Amino acid sequence: MILCIDQVISPELLARVQATLADSAFRDGRETAGWHARTVKQNEQADGRQPEVVALREELASALQRHPLFQMAARPRRMKPLMFSRYQEGMSYGNHVDDAIMATPQGAMRTDLSFTLFLNDPDSYEGGELLIDSTAGEQTYKLPAGALILYPSSTLHRVEPVTRGDRLAAVGWAQSQVRDPQQREILFDLDTTRRQEFEAHGKTRTFDMLSKSLANLLRMWAEI
Length: 224
Fold this sequence. Notes:
The protein is an alpha+beta fold.
């Protein structure tokens, strides 16, 4: 399942992220790439040792933890600290698959889901589309500032060359409480349906039965 979520962060937070990154030091993005990805990765990443960068990524992570749609789709058990990437003119990131296991401050985690949070207006740069190679073929994404795309870490993907301007984004990874992607999609659909039922009719018998089924499936499939 590939999911685009609009307005994941507030305009106020987005403006502060943009202002902070404009004054931040960036490093060669190849420093955080696997040995094979380094050969196709050409971008820059905000130096994660800067206190203001640490504070920003923690604030963004908290915003994602509070976002109901992100939580419904990802059901994160662990998340790797976000990284802020910048692609200037001529930069790109060729075809790659994200590492299956990544280090976090809490120990190693499995990467089930990857996400990109777009941080600047798509009209401010040309190129820079995220291209995901799925069973439906290659699909490109270039979302508004503040919007996020969530997709399986198992996919081949790339960032197309930027031909004008700068592309800013926050990227991250999550280990889900539900390892199987098909099970995650079933839970997402069921949760979406029960919320729609509640909005339309309140706490009905149908809502209660949907909630029971959701809870029991989660009880069967979750890894805690």
